[in-house]
């Protein structure tokens, strides 16, 4: 999972995030520690993780959990990455649906600019709520999906 995380960051964020961060020799070990904690530490027991594989090889990862923001959404998508070669194949949608309940409000942060990812999330009902932050020198927009009783049917 850490390898997929690092590889897809490098594919996705080259030119948006500094090369120093993306090429840091310690990046993989930090992502390994991140995933080890996310999957084993009891404080993260409410998180939901999923992987996608093809022919026994991991090609995508996703994780959600309780909202970390002051947003009304109870769920937050923390991670959703698939190798670029699998974009448009349905892998992203399958991962999203595996970790986010379609019948509940949800939020996520997406890099800006990242028109492909933003279009993907819009297709799945997420809209920008105007919140912006910078993380790892990357500008991010918050997107939310509000679900009302009529939508959940």
From TrEMBL:
<keyword id="KW-0808">Transferase</keyword>
<dbReference type="Pfam" id="PF00583">
    <property type="entry name" value="Acetyltransf_1"/>
</dbReference>
<feature type="domain" description="N-acetyltransferase">
    <location>
        <begin position="1"/>
        <end position="148"/>
    </location>
</feature>
<dbReference type="GO" id="GO:0016747">
    <property type="term" value="F:acyltransferase activity, transferring groups other than amino-acyl groups"/>
</dbReference>
<protein>
    <submittedName>
        <fullName>N-acetyltransferase</fullName>
    </submittedName>
</protein>
<dbReference type="InterPro" id="IPR016181">
    <property type="entry name" value="Acyl_CoA_acyltransferase"/>
</dbReference>
<dbReference type="InterPro" id="IPR000182">
    <property type="entry name" value="GNAT_dom"/>
</dbReference>
């Amino acid at each position: 999972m850490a390898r997929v995380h690092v590889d897809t960051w490098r594919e996705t964020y080259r030119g948006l995030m500094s090369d120093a961060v993306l090429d840091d020799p310690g990046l993989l070990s930090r992502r390994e520690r991140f995933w080890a904690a996310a999957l084993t530490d009891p404080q993260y027991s409410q998180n939901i993780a999923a992987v996608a594989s093809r022919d026994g090889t991991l090609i995508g990862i996703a994780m959600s959990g309780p909202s970390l923001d002051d947003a009304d959404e109870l769920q937050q998508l923390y991670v959703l990455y698939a190798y670029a070669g699998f974009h448009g194949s349905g892998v992203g949608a399958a991962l999203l649906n595996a970790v986010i309940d379609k019948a509940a409000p949800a939020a996520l942060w997406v890099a800006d600019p990242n028109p492909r990812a933003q279009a993907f999330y819009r297709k799945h009902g997420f809209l920008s709520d105007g919140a912006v932050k910078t993380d790892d020198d990357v500008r991010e927009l918050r997107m939310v999906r509000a679900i009302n009783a009529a939508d959940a049917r």
